[in-house]
From TrEMBL:
Residues 29-303 form the Helicase ATP-binding domain. Pfam families: Helicase_C_2. GO terms for molecular function: ATP binding; DNA helicase activity; hydrolase activity, acting on acid anhydrides, in phosphorus-containing anhydrides; nucleic acid binding. This is ATP-dependent helicase. GO terms for biological process: nucleobase-containing compound metabolic process. The lineage of its organism: Bacteria, Bacillati, Bacillota, Bacilli, Bacillales. Belongs to the helicase family. DinG subfamily. SUPFAM superfamilies: P-loop containing nucleoside triphosphate hydrolases. It comes from the Bacteria. Keywords: ATP-binding, Helicase, Hydrolase, Nucleotide-binding.
Length: 649
């Protein structure tokens, strides 16, 4: 790539960084003011601090409050740097919603193009679950009468089932293209781990494959989720060994937007999942082939042992917890069943080697079975041998799933992610607790880093009010209905879990009647839901994930209701963190809650002209956290205890 593609001239007597610094100065002091944009000292300070990360190719925690324009600041560096190095920069967002916020027509990338006259080559790399699977669609619609799923076929390009030239192929099959499907419908037809894409006969016409080929060619930016980036890291070497390209190309720089959430994506990417139903489904692929009687009997035995294994796991799981993750006791009975199942699967894999030599089993079926059995074996090995592994059971109406995760991921992150000598930026309004970044750095295995904190330029004292309600559970629901019903602009209500949202949805929300539109997370594709809410200026958006990243200025969102303090759940993942901490409350629970609470409150004021109110609901036991909460609030709250109101000023 030549320097002609840079947005500024580069002469022989200048280094790239000198020319970049001069251009950044011109942008802030000349170009943006000429376009009518207000010059913000906080943004300029942040931009020139960030320059050090690119010069030193180091890790930078860039904590900047709402309204400082942190996205614009890191884009001004990553785009020229990508063009200078000839490698795209990767921006990893915490989830798919933030990706859509970044690339929407009114998003920061479009604004930058308009302001600077740039043409930015930005492409999306979404998680595999965000794409349609043609194989699953065929199987699901063959036994379903769901008209919404039939409608999906109407949107599939003609070349998928026709004889069109490959030159006419284009990316398709993104979750966003099917907003009318709710999350449960989408799970019936999207990619999942049981699909062997490498052996699939429609692989080259698959939407996921075409999207991957598209984003690999990005010249400036590739935007993905934290989940997808971490999946890329964990699978990179294995894919190379199999003769496949890594999920993402080599990057010039990486930006972790909402970087305080990266640890959870890393943990999720390292999990091994084995469900009760999947093994039977997988092994059925073999029994439909012409296999030997000995192998058939062995399969029947494994299915029986697998059921017994899950029964013992469920027997020794914690069924008292309210969390969807049920901790498992490593009881001797569980270990005994695990060893028996492992021996049988080892034996079956040996028999399948012989079966494959007879060429009686479909190659695609065999590949899926072998890969899944290897995964089950690895789960069994961790369960039996790794005392440090975090293990839990997830149960729903249709299935049970065993999940196994390494206890801590910082050692792997330290080696695989943060040892690379490339600029790495963590960007968020909440990366520290009182400007101390050690909680985040330690959890991610980051030993050396630069950091800075920039406060928001907004005048919160005139823009926001915060009211804290100490109230019992029944009165809380009634009060929330009252607040939503009397507010004539848009409201966001944040819950700590889906179960809390459901409790409100079916217990109290019906009292609001039909005059107020309520949008619930999970009912539609999330970015479509957010867009509807934004354009419906007197509606209510209910969510348990949108504590961060939701950027809706103006009257569309002028009230935020926080249902309860967002402490981490009492599940095996956080229990493992607590068990390995000398002070679990102050080192694990409280920092997590305060960071998340700051993010939730930060959804309200997005521009200097915004105004609104925050309502935080607490129980009597939460009184002990009041001082810590007040220290992270932008304004002094009013305390409402029943009939009394106390202004904390």
């Amino acid at each position: 790539m030549t320097t002609k593609s840079l947005p500024f001239p580069l002469t022989s007597d200048q280094s790239f960084y000198e020319a970049l610094g001069d251009w950044i100065g011109d942008v802030f002091y000349d170009i943006l003011p000429e376009k009518g944009l207000e010059l913000r000292d906080e943004q300029i300070f942040m931009a020139f601090q960030m320059e050090q990360a690119f010069k030193k190719k180091s890790i930078m925690f860039a904590e900047a409050g709402v309204g400082t324009g942190k996205t614009l600041a890191y884009l001004l560096y990553t785009i020229p740097y990508a063009r200078y190095t000839g490698k795209p920069a990767i921006i990893a967002c915490s989830d798919e919603t933030l990706i859509e916020q970044l690339v929407k027509k009114t998003g920061d990338i479009q604004k930058l193009e308009d302001l600077l006259g740039l043409s930015i080559d930005v492409r999306l790399a979404k998680s595999r679950e965000q794409y349609l699977c043609l194989k699953k669609l065929d199987k699901t619609t063959a036994k379903s009468e769901d008209e919404d799923l039939d409608e999906v076929y109407e949107q599939i390009p003609e070349f998928v089932y026709g004889k069109g030239s490959m030159t006419s192929f284009y990316p398709y099959g993104d979750r966003k293209e099917f907003p009318y499907l709710d999350d449960d419908q989408w799970k019936q037809i999207n990619w999942d781990s049981l699909q062997d894409c490498l052996s699939c006969d429609v692989r080259h016409r698959c939407g996921q494959t075409l999207n991957r080929e598209h984003y690999r060619s990005a010249g400036d930016l590739i935007i993905c989720s934290h989940d997808f980036y971490m999946e890329h890291i964990w699978t990179k070497e294995a894919r190379k060994r199999e003769g496949q390209l890594p999920l993402l190309p080599e990057a010039s720089a990486v930006v972790f937007d909402e970087g305080h959430l990266l640890e959870f994506a890393a943990q999720k990417a390292l999990t091994y999942r084995t469900s009760l139903s999947n093994l039977s489904i997988i092994l059925d692929k073999l029994t439909s082939n012409d296999i030997r009687e000995k192998t058939l009997y062995l399969i029947e035995r494994i299915v029986e042992q697998h059921d017994e294994w899950f029964a013992s796991i469920s027997k020794h799981a914690d069924h008292e917890t309210t969390s969807e993750r049920r901790a498992i006791v490593r009881h001797e009975e569980v270990l005994t069943y695990s060893k028996k199942l492992k021996e049988s699967i080892d034996q079956l894999l040996e028999e399948l080697v012989f079966e494959s030599e007879l060429y009686m089993i479909d190659e695609y079926d065999l590949k899926i079975v072998e890969e899944y059995l290897e995964q089950v074996l690895f789960s069994l090995k961790l369960l039996v041998e790794d005392d440090g592994a975090i293990i839990w059971l997830e149960e729903d109406a249709d299935d049970e799933t065993l999940v196994i995760m390494p206890r801590l991921v910082e050692d792997i992150l330290r080696e695989e992610v943060f040892s690379k000598k490339i600029p790495t930026i963590f960007s968020s309004a909440t990366l520290s607790i009182k400007e101390d970044f050690s909680y985040l750095a330690n959890s991610l295995g980051i030993d050396q880093y630069d950091s800075f904190s920039v406060s928001s330029p907004f005048d919160y004292s005139n823009a926001m009010s915060v009211e804290i309600h100490f109230i019992d559970e029944f009165e809380k629901g009634q009060k929330q209905v009252q607040l939503l019903g009397s507010h004539d602009e848009g409201s966001l209500i944040l819950f700590n879990a889906k179960e809390d949202q459901d409790l409100y949805r079916y217990g109290y929300a019906p009292e609001l009647g039909q005059d107020i539109h309520l949008y619930y997370e999970g009912d539609e594709e999330i970015s479509t839901l957010v867009e509807k809410f934004q354009h419906d200026h007197s509606s209510v958006l209910s969510s348990y994930h949108l504590w961060e990243g939701l950027d809706i200025p103006g009257s569309s969102l002028s009230q935020v209701i926080i249902d309860s303090l967002p402490f981490p759940p009492q599940d095996p993942v956080f229990e493992a963190k607590r068990n390995h901490s000398s002070d679990p409350v102050n080192e694990v629970d409280l920092p997590y809650m305060l960071l998340r609470l700051q993010q939730g409150i930060g959804r309200l004021i997005r521009t200097s002209s915004d105004k609104g109110e925050v309502h935080l609901f607490l129980c009597d036991e939460d009184q002990k956290w009041l001082n810590e909460i007040e220290q992270i609030l932008p304004v002094k709250p009013v305390i409402n205890k029943g009939q009394s109101r106390i202004n904390r000023d």
